[in-house]
Fold this protein.
Amino acid sequence: MVGSGGMGGGLLENANPLIYERSGERPVTAGEEDEQIPDSIDAREIFDLIRSINDPEHPLTLEELNVVEQVRVQVSDPESTVAVAFTPTIPHCSMATLIGLSIKVKLLRSLPQRFKLDVHITPGTHASEHAVNKQLADKERVAAALENTHLLEVVNQCLSARS
Amino acid sequence: MAAAAALEAVAPTGALWGLVQDFVMGQQEGPADQVAADVKSGSYTVLQVVEALGSSLENPEPRTRARGIQLLSQVLLQCHSLLLEKEVVHLILFYENRLKDHHLVIPSVLQGLRALSLCVALPPGLAVSVLKAIFQEVHVQSLPQVDRHTVYSIITNFMRTREEGPFVEELFEVTSCYFPIDFTPPPNDPHGIQREDLILSLRAVLAYTPRFAEFLLPLLIEKVDSEILSAKLDSLQTLNACCAVYGQKELKDFLPSLWASIRREVFQTASERVEAEGLAALNSLTACLSRSVLRADAEDLLDSFLSNILQDCRHHLCEPDMKLVWPSAKLLQAAAGASARACDHITSNVLPLLLEQFHKHSQSNQRRTILEMILGFLKLQQKWSYEDKDERPLSGFKDQLCSLVFMALTDPSTQLQLVSIRTLTVLGAQPDLLSSGDLELAVGHLYRLSFLEEDSQSCRVAALEASGTLATLYPVAFSSHLVPKLAGELCIEESDLARGDGPTKCSRHRRCLQALSAISTHASIVKETLPLLLQHLRQMNKGNTVAGISEVIAVCQSLQQVAEKCQQDPESCWYFHQTAIPCLLALAVQASMPEKEHSVLKKVLLQDEVLAAMVSVIGTATTHLSPDLAAQSVAHIVPLFLDGNITFLPENSFPGRFQPFQDGSSGQRRLVALLMAFVCSLPRNVEIPQLNQLMRELLELSCCHSCPFSSTAAAKCFAGLLNKHPAGQQLDEFLQLAVDKVEAGLSSGPYRSQAFTLLLWVTKALVLRYHPLSSCLTDRLMGLLSDPELGPAAADGFSLLMSDCTDVLTRAGHAEVRIMFRQRFFTDNVPALVRGFHAAPQDVKPNYLKGLSHVLNRLPKPVLLPELPTLLSLLLEALSCPDSVVQLSTLSCLQPLLLEAPQVMSLHIDTLVTKFLNLSSSPSMAVRIAALQCMHAVTHLPTPVLLPYKLQVIRALAKPLDDKKRLVRKEAVSARGEWFLLGSPGS
């Protein structure tokens, strides 16, 4: 908590971000405990997948930084589509691509293959919105990024459970 | 030297001289102890030793001088108690003089002074003289560690009895140079000293005396202001410790700086620990200022200190963005929590401000924050009791607070409602604050909140809890304003229910019952609510309503909660018992009478679930009875069941006789469950009349042609009584009867299943109390595992043996339950179960596995872990067992084993991965979840073992990601996520 030097040890771009409360665990309903009733994949379930992703430079989660919010998750289980919009903490955040990549990788690893994923920046919240969105939508570039050991290392750190 | 001169009269003995020579010149260590022993035994005096040392003490070679002084010092260390005052004076003069000597000599000189510092006969003034000499002649801080320790010992010895006097600064210098402690114990440190030990010891020294204050406080401020977290924490904690001995005088000059540092830490820190320590230090500082006794003309620093705090914090409470409100409120509350005066000062300044802010803000979440702060200040008031009503600082704000809380109670925001319910409870806890008008309003709000809809569950629960708390304080308000409303509600409900109104009526009804039990926290209220509940039950029995099973059970649950609330008060407990139990028994007996036209409720009252609910009421109302009163009750209830003596029941004109044990109807036999609830909850020393007959009747009923409910109740009742019966001839007779009954029943015929149930319950009763016969009965039970008919039931029986019952054989019901019975059962029986498994024919093997699973499941995991490796091959085999109980239990055994014993488990990686993946598509959701949790736990095995499986597992785990159940998907996600990270950079 104290004297956080950031991941790279350099200066933080946004040293004093506003911190938001974490939502609690999703309460388990009687329906969820019933063997027979199918539970469809909904926005909260997608949000639960991504809310605990660690920010690359703060010891905080994307939820605590309000980078991801449940209202910005669109999902249709029958049509197998998921769209997630994320909001960088500042408009010039150089970590935006990395954050988007982490969200994308987390969803690729956690959702059934039938789903078509769309991860993009909340419109109007980042200076290079289009460039970042284009990179995130390009399957080959995402695959190439994950071949890069350094990038994969940072993404994995974002996806590791916080001890 | 004066000492040497005084010694000349005495002639040294030859032996002593020889020993001294051996030590000093011969460099032998032994003679020192010899000399000391001789001095102790009186062979020589200390003076003779000095005499014998003579020339070596004046030898030009410093090593020889050091050796001579060392001998003297060692002797003194052992013999200091023998010294006379005059000798001490001489020796101290000698040693002080030697401090000027060569540095090689110093360690021995310090040892000698240490010996002398232990002398009881130390004349006044000499301690000061010794310390002066040490500080003047020796630079303590640069001595080797051993010698510094000696100096500190000397200081400590003097401090025990004497003042540190003129050496405050020197003492502070030589101790404070260690602050803050920065020490990491070396590996394999034989002393086992931890950093924390040193911190606490040094803190004890630094905070020992107020005289250090002028030196210590600047040091602490400096360290709080440093960048190092541990230094901040240590300084704040030390400041906290100092406040216990300091007064206004010591703190006066440093208050502004101390406050500035603490404020900065609380406002800016990212560490919760620093914040907590800062607040604790502020609390202690304020307490210290509040405590100090002042001279008449002195300024009271508390007022100015608190005014400073208020000045720096209050404007944050009013800032519209509310950014620093919480740190400010915490600081103010830390100070206010220190004393009644501080609390008064701060509350009277802050409350008007917060009340105003509440009305300025219109958003619910801002109002909630403000109300939470108000609540914090109100709670602090509870720490202080005010004798005089007019002095209570809250009196002036009472009306404003009440109207604010009542307004918040009607806010649409659940969060704000919750805080206002808590605030109402705290206001109510202030003695004499609320007027009867306020209470009436409060009760009205609580009534409304108790009937909130399903989506405001948390508010409703909080309102019920608040009602319970406030009802203990204001029973009259609740009796007069709430009980009549609830009573009315119950009546209205019935007519509505009769018209068959929708489920909302039904749920209102249930809420009413919950409210009635929630407020039964005061004896006088119970006297109103209990008759209402019982009347309601009787009313249902009149047959003019269609009461469902769940309706009756709801009433019983309320009764049970009331009984629970009565347990701690003997008078209420007895009131409940003698009011409720005859009534319940009368209703049940009435229902069990053979009659042509059964009212619907009568049938309802005899249902398994309803009887179970009544059992729990009777048990709860009985366990806390005093033995005297319990004996009164047992004298009525046992004859009711054995002889049909119904005289003590209210409304006891029944159309037939009550003979549950003779040829009564099957309905009557079912009521043995109620007898069980009563007799099995009695304290152990209550004598049960006609016990012999009762036990025989119970045995008969347990194995006769009857419904399983009655025979099981009889078996449980028999077992419950058996468990509490003192060892001796009568117990042996009962046991013999039971064994005969079991064997006769098991051999053949229609009662095998009943006999098995009896065996099971008797075994449980004996296992719990470690009775020697229990092993015999357990073996019998184990034998039944291969019985084609009873095998599966026997396997499930192990679950019953290992679990806690709720109605009989409970600790609360005074049963004899040894705490380690599960461990003992495990040790005694698992080897036999394993042997039985290997010897059993294929078709009954699952029974053994299931029995074993139940035993393993109930055992605390820490106990189980060391045993599991020996069972591993069996567990791996059990993974292939088709029974989902066995699968589940096996998975839950393997999961911790994967975490705790990765090396052993690595050997079976292939089996584990294959089986877990298979089970992750089991039809049972619980098994799928457990299998995926195991797949997650597998990732704790060494990575090289896992890597060959990585791709296969990741592919296989894609399937459960699309499981139809969310709980399964969740486990699949976390397991698959971990497998992705294996051997990947950054993990």
